[in-house]
Amino acid sequence: MRRLDIAQQRLVSQHIALPGLKKPDDVVRWLVAVQAQDYAGAKWALGLRLKGGTETVIEQAFTDGSILRTHLMRPTWHFVTPADIRWLLALTAPRVHSVNAHMYRKLELDDTIFKRSHATLAKALRDSQTLTRDELRSVLESAGIAVNGDLRMGYLMMRAELDAIVCSGPRRGKQFTYALLDDRVPQPRTLARDEALVELARRYFVSRGPATVQDFAKWSGLTVIDARNGLEGVKHHLQCEIVADRTYWFPTSIPNAGNASPIAHLLSIYDEYISGYKDRSAMVSESYAARLSGLGNALSYIVAIDGQIVGTWKRMITKNSVTIEPNFFKRLTAPEKQAVEVAVQRYAQFVDLPLVSAKASYH
């Protein structure tokens, strides 16, 4: 397996090269969890993998609760389905609490305060009520729970998410709301810890392979020992290959995406094609990786051609149009320019706005 083959097979495994999934929750279910702290970008990450998906369709799925948004794994916000949210929280929250322990102490948040805040939030959100963060801030302050700035409030709400008290509710205009998890997921699916490890490993390597156990540990936030234990329970369903002293695991059968080339993709910030792996060398050359770091954020909006990162892009959205500004790390051939234009048009269709052309720049 050559370096380029790894990238191309990941495009197929993640349903980027073959975007045939029909509904937003199909995408989230396939990927198990989709990084979503940048909400607009996360919606595009789903749309990229949908056949004819639009932003409106994904927003409706979020409103309906067929996809939810909560903190889990590393930790950060993720999209997750109702069927998976509880067992994922049970598996990954203890690890997140270990990561957060220093901040809990720094912010003077202990189990007594969390118990009081959980009870206060549960009371405020009962009977299927949904409230914004600012509204819940007032609720907590009225209950005598100090909320000193956004950071302390953020950790109080994150803890409530991790402890399966709250999750996302429907948006109110452009504002996010919280709802009780019991209201959004009345019939939870639960798994024993060993079962959950194996389930997570199976779905990770099937949806993101070829990948290494170190990739799995980084993505899930679990220890390498846990990652190895999960892989051990599922590796008989996978195949592996050693490339450059790394063992890559992947499904026994990956569909052929065809021989068309070049094909370009505009990837979202934090897209799972990037954030799903510890080692990204299969998708970006060493010199280009350095340029990404030089731009201040290795997890930017990415332009990829045939699975290889060749630049970044910015979007400017107004009420009446969308402008895409690509920034390339190399001069493109005429076929590559055409491929990028197709990808740009696809994003404009996703947001359902006329496209205003912008001149490409080179870094």
Layout of SSEs?
Layout: H1 3-13, H2 24-31, E1 34-35, H3 39-48, H4 55-64, E2 68-72, E3 76-80, H5 82-106, H6 111-124, E4 131-132, H7 133-142, H8 149-162, E5 166-168, E6 177-180, H9 181-184, H10 193-208, H11 213-220, H12 224-232, E7 238-243, E8 246-251, E9 264-267, H13 272-275, H14 286-294, E10 302-305, E11 308-317, E12 322-328, H15 334-351, E13 355-356, E14 361-362
Parallel strand pairs: 12-13, 12-14
Antiparallel strand pairs: 1-3, 2-3, 4-6, 5-6, 7-8, 9-10, 10-11, 11-12
Helix pairs in contact: 5-10, 10-12, 11-12
Describe what this molecule looks like in 3D:
The protein is α+β, with helices and mostly antiparallel strands and 363 residues long. Helix content is 47%, strand content 17%. The strands form four sheets. Strands 9, 10, 11, 12, 13 and 14 form a six-stranded mixed sheet that branches. A three-stranded antiparallel sheet has the order 1-3-2, sandwiched between helices.
Low-confidence stretches: none
N-to-C order of helices and strands = HHEHHEEHHEHHEEHHHHEEEHHEEEHEE
**Compute the gyration radius: what is it?**
21 Å
Task: Characterize the biggest β-sheet.
Answer: 6 strands, mixed
List the total number of helices.
Answer: 15
* Number of β-strand runs: 14
What percent of residues are in strands? 15-25%
The coarse overall form would be globular
- Give the fraction of residues assigned to helices: 40-55%
Number of domains: 3
Mean pLDDT: 92
Q: In angstroms, what separates the terminal alpha carbons?
A: 31 Å
**Given the helix and strand composition, which structural class is it?**
alpha+beta
